[in-house]
Amino acid sequence: MKSAEPLVLGPKKLLRRQRRVELLQSLGYVTVVATLAMFLLDGGLANLSDLPSWLDALSRATSLVGNALLILMLLLTARVPWIDRIVGQDRATEAHKQLGKPAFYLILGHFAFSLTSWAISDGRNVLAELWWMVTSVTDLLTATLSILLMVLVVLSSFRFVRSRLNYESWFITHLLSYAVVGFSIPHIFSMGSDVVASIWHLAFWTFLYLFAGLNILVFRLLLPIWNSATSSLRVVMVKRESSDSISIYIGGRKLNKFGAHAGQFFQVRFLTKDLWFQAHPFSISSKPTDKVLRFTIGDRGDGSSLMQKVPVGTRVLLEGPYGVFTQHSRTRRNVLLIGAGIGIPPIRALAEELAGTPGDVSILYRTRDEEDSALLTELRDISRRRGHRLLVASGSRPANGNWLSRTALSDAQTLSGHFPHVASSDVYVCGPQPLTEAIEKTLRELGVAEDHIHTEEYAW
Amino acid sequence: MRKETRLALGVLGLTTLGTSYLVGQNGAVTMALPAAAVQETSQATAPSSSSSATTGPSTTSSPSATDAAAAPTETAIATAEPTQSASASSTYTSSTVNYRYGQVQLAVTVNGNLIESIDIIKATTDGRQYQQVPPMLVDLALQAQGSNFGNISRATFTTQAFKKALDDALAQAGM
């Protein structure tokens, strides 16, 4: 096997990876602290003499921190490569979700505080004041619209609402977030005197907005379109792998420019009339080449089947590649790859791409039915050729609640029985979420540290 | 994130915020209007946006509302800023800027690139405690030598109108 880059392993690599993650987290943290520090330096909490001035100060502080968080949230889901390469899409999305609530409450607070403060100063009731603000004050109409949209977006993100929405409705609602930020910008720059207070404040906020905006524009929009267009991507073959999976081969020119690695995924859009607005997160299922990328996906062949909807020749738009479920996260010589069900595609690709001498890489394929398992033949071939140890554990989940062991032995005992080096390995796990969690639990029991357990969810 | 890193960031953040707070309380100059005065007038007073004091290094206008004049809706205040240089000073009159609480018009005397004085031809404010705002703005503009200074807290609209008038006059002066 020839590998494009030399294989680097060891604790130093792990430390470098941790430092990059911490640097990223620190950048976000520093941004928030900086906004608050500028507010305080400006005398934000000085001369607070009465209720309106207190409310004013609160309104300023909440809006500053809230907006900083909003900008960070935008960046975290903009799928920018420099964030993705460090933490991966799923952790970035996780952070995005964590910031969501505080940002929402802070902005709501800003609205309530400023409205109350103005109402008291003007001696009007809150509703009359709101009406006056919206109708008479430049830029407050858009700002109010912005907060209404924000409520809508947040509502659609609550778990009980979101579970009732299909991905598209949720996604379109979520696209409104850009409108939320867009509509809020005029009043921030025309009235937010923490922003226009001095050239430094203005520069700081302008930079934040421009930086986020450009990242979104370039990485979310322009680059995927440019890369896809210049590669003239098309579906070249669709092949059934098992009763519930198919492979889609996408061909084009100079695909190396995407820089994809085994274990990563793309957001795939098929440019047909019915499908172009859906982006499917598909994992690469073989080592990427310059001419063809292969994706293997769950597909039951029923009404939702892509197989019938995506004929050969269909034009394709690719966004990606994404994810750190790759060789780059590996710091140990020994590797255990665990794939369960339709989680097998990235495992199959890693089995092919991971550097190693015979015995370094072990594979566990957890499948319901050995006769009807996607990519199993290929995995056997690769394992034979490269000297990987392959264990196929088939059958439905044992009745005793385990995910692997059917005997009195625990999952942990069974797993370490089959793979004695597991505790000193990097373990890559891909499968349905409940199963992945069960596997992670077993791995922790066996003493595999968090830094050596690699999972990737299709996060949205 | 490792524990040490988290600790270091926490300490750093708190120190920064603490220092900023202290500097803000002592050093920063606020020109917030005394809020107590706001309630005195029968008229609705100018609500402020969330506006901050300027960070200008040496602005020290006193915010005390000592002006005992009755509340006129329109005031014409001339600043006691005599034209010192007789050499090449010229005065430019801004157009009248209409805003939420009335009108602002300024006469700006310029000598070369120096703004020598700013006379208020017209500056409508809303309520007694706001009468002090235009002269404060004049001070700020003279110190900043232009409109690049922060808003006066709770008088954002007046500040903006003043800046607009000032910029207009300066544009006529070709500055």
Domain unit count of chain B: 1
Let me know the average pLDDT of chain B.
Answer: 70
Helix content class of chain A:
40-55%
Instruction: Report the C-alpha radius of gyration of chain B, rounded.
Output: 20 Å
The CATH topology label of chain B is Sufe protein. Chain: A
Coarse structural class of chain B: alpha+beta
* CATH topological fold name of the largest domain in chain A: Four Helix Bundle (Hemerythrin (Met), subunit A)
What is the annotated CATH architecture of chain B?
Alpha-Beta Complex
What is the structural class of chain A? alpha/beta
CATH architecture of the largest domain in chain A: Up-down Bundle
Percent of residues in β-strands of chain A: 5-15%
Series of secondary-structure elements of chain B, N-terminal to C-terminal? HHEEEEEHH
User: In CATH's first tier, which class of chain B applies?
Assistant: Alpha Beta
Q: Quaternary arrangement of the chains shown?
A: heterodimer
Q: How many DSSP H or I helices of chain B?
A: 4
Work out the largest interface and the residue count of each chain: A-B, 49 and 43 residues
Shape of chain A: elongated
Number-wise, the strands of chain B total: 5
Give the tally of structural domains of chain A: 3
What features would you describe in this structure?
The complex is a heterodimer of chains A (460) and B (175). Chain A is of the alpha/beta class and 460 residues long. Chain A folds into three domains: 11-226, Four Helix Bundle (Hemerythrin (Met), subunit A) (Up-down Bundle), CATH 1.20.120; 233-322, Beta Barrel (Elongation Factor Tu (Ef-tu), domain 3), CATH 2.40.30.10; 330-455, Rossmann fold (3-Layer(aba) Sandwich). Chain A contains 14 helices and eleven strands. In chain A, strands 9-8-7-10-11 form a five-stranded parallel sheet, sandwiched between helices. A three-stranded antiparallel sheet of chain A has the order 1-2-5, with no helix packed on it. A three-stranded antiparallel sheet of chain A has the order 4-3-6. In chain A, strand 10, helix 14 (433-445) and strand 11 form a beta-alpha-beta unit. In chain A, helix 3 (81-122) packs across helix 4 (126-136), helix 3 (81-122) packs across helix 5 (140-157) and helix 4 packs across helix 5. The longest helix of chain A has 42 residues, at 81-122. Chain A starts with 10 loop residues before the first helix and ends in a 5-residue tail after the last strand. Chain B has a single domain, classed as Sufe protein. Chain: A, CATH 3.90.1010. Chain B has four helices and five strands, in the order ααβββββαα. In chain B, strands 1, 2, 3, 4 and 5 form a five-stranded antiparallel sheet that branches. In chain B, a hairpin with a 2-residue loop joins strand 4 and strand 5. In chain B, helix 3 (133-144) packs across helix 4. The relative contact order of chain B is 0.20. The interface between A and B is large, with 49 and 43 residues.
